[in-house]
Automatic annotation (TrEMBL):
The record marks E310 as: Transition state stabilizer. Its EC number is 4.2.1.6. Reaction proceeds via an anti dehydration. The gene is dgoD. This is D-galactonate dehydratase. Binds 1 Mg(2+) ion per subunit.
């Protein structure tokens, strides 16, 4: 079998889908994208295309190594997202060619169902209680929200009380009937991280995500010493070589590699295995589309240490299209009591509605995240 064509489709709300065609008629889908940089990743995918045309799609490991090492410069959000989407599509092709779901190519399922969580509140954590109430009606009991609005490197007791007050209200309203992660979203600088973690301690969040920016990873062990709250990070780390360092230094209880940013299934399965050796859990990051989610689920179903899966249904970013709008087999993504069953169709298990994708790609917006500024006019982490 040979790869004959790669086609990219930028689609609302902010995703990009990649279709890889082969000379035997089998087609694979991937989701190479960095939110807000879809066109840059698209260019990276098209730069890799001449190398891929004519190659055997079944030699996923060799193609991955050649894409990663062959260009001399390597790693980073753009190149690893391009490789990720191509990798996902290659696994999709291999599974379809052999008539088995990707998890069966990786040794089979370690679980019967996977625990999911949903976002509540938006860029600024608003109406969280109402959001939780609504999702609990459909059996969701695990949530994630932003922990703060803009936060200065050194901010006030009032800002801390505001952040903590919201969390206190959640525990007040729902007790231990629900669990929730708090995403600091990189908005909290090291001086404030310890203050906030200490203040949140009594409310026992399930985890705090990106307690500091990924470029401040050396703080993870120090922050972990100061709190019993499990710390999570990973959406802005792009290869096992980055995750190696945070595992060696300790501090993270949960790794959150993104299957569309960190080299795809081939790389993230390795990252999950590395984490297991350090007794660290994995909870793949996935605020994206259905192909990215499917790739996450195949990793979840073969990883003993996979504990939670993010999905974007109802997320504040999904303006203009929802998680399953481009999917024909919507029922396969049904959640039951906050869990999802394995995707059992051959390959990734996503039947892409190609017509819908083509139509939507005709006027895809160039999504950008907002540029936030503090009251003094300086740039604030979003
Ligand atoms: O945890 C999450 O989902 C992420 O922090 C998410 O909010 C960001 O990755 C966003 O998609 C960036 O544009
Ligand atoms: Mg996050």
């Amino acid at each position: 079998m040979k790869i004959i064509k790669l086609t990219t489709y930028r689609v609302p709300p902010r995703w990009m889908l990649l279709k890889i065609e082969t000379d035997e008629g089998i087609v694979g889908w991937g989701e190479p994208v960095i939110e807000g940089r879809a066109r840059t990743v698209e260019a990276a995918v098209h730069e890799m295309t001449p190398f891929l045309i004519g190659q055997d799609p079944g030699r996923i490991n060799d193609l991955w190594q050649a894409m990663y090492r062959g260009g001399f410069y390597r790693g980073g959000a753009i190149l690893m997202s391009a490789i990720a989407g191509i990798d996902q599509a290659l696994w999709d092709i291999k599974g379809k060619a052999l008539g088995v779901p990707v998890y069966d190519l990786l040794g089979g399922r370690v679980r019967d169902k996977m625990k999911m969580y949903s976002w509540v509140g938006g860029d600024r954590p608003l109406d969280v209680i109402a959001g939780i109430r609504k999702l609990r009606e459909v059996g969701i009991d695990t949530f994630k929200m932003n922990g703060t609005e803009e936060l200065r490197m050194l901010d006030s007791a009032r800002a801390v009380d505001q952040a903590v007050g919201r969390i206190a209200e959640i525990r007040e309203a729902f007790g231990n009937d629900i669990e929730f992660g708090i995403d600091f979203h990189g908005r909290v600088a090291a001086p404030m991280a310890k203050v906030l973690l200490r203040a949140l301690e009594p409310y026992r969040p399930l985890f705090v995500e990106e307690p500091v920016l990924a470029e401040q990873a050396e703080y993870y062990p120090r922050l972990a010493e100061s709190t019993s709250i499990p710390l999570a990070a990973g959406e802005r780390m792009y290869s096992r070589f980055e995750f190696k360092r945070v595992l060696e230094q300790g501090g993270l209880a949960i790794l959150q590699p993104d299957l569309s940013h960190a080299g795809g299934i081939t790389e993230c399965v390795k990252i999950a295995a590395m984490a297991e050796a350090y007794d660290v859990a994995v909870a793949p990051h996935c605020p994206l589309g259905p192909v990215a989610l499917a790739a996450c689920l195949h990793l979840d179903f073969v990883s003993h240490n996979a504990v939670l899966q993010e999905q974007s249904m109802g997320i504040h970013y999904n303006q203009g299209a929802e998680l399953l709008d481009y999917v024909i087999n919507k029922d396969d993504f049904r959640m039951d009591g906050g869990y999802i069953a394995a995707l059992t169709k051959p390959g990734l298990g996503v039947e892409v509605d190609e017509e819908r994708v083509l139509e939507a790609s005709k006027n895809a917006p160039d999504w950008r995240n907002p540029l936030w500024r503090h009251e003094d006019g300086s740039v604030a982490e979003w």
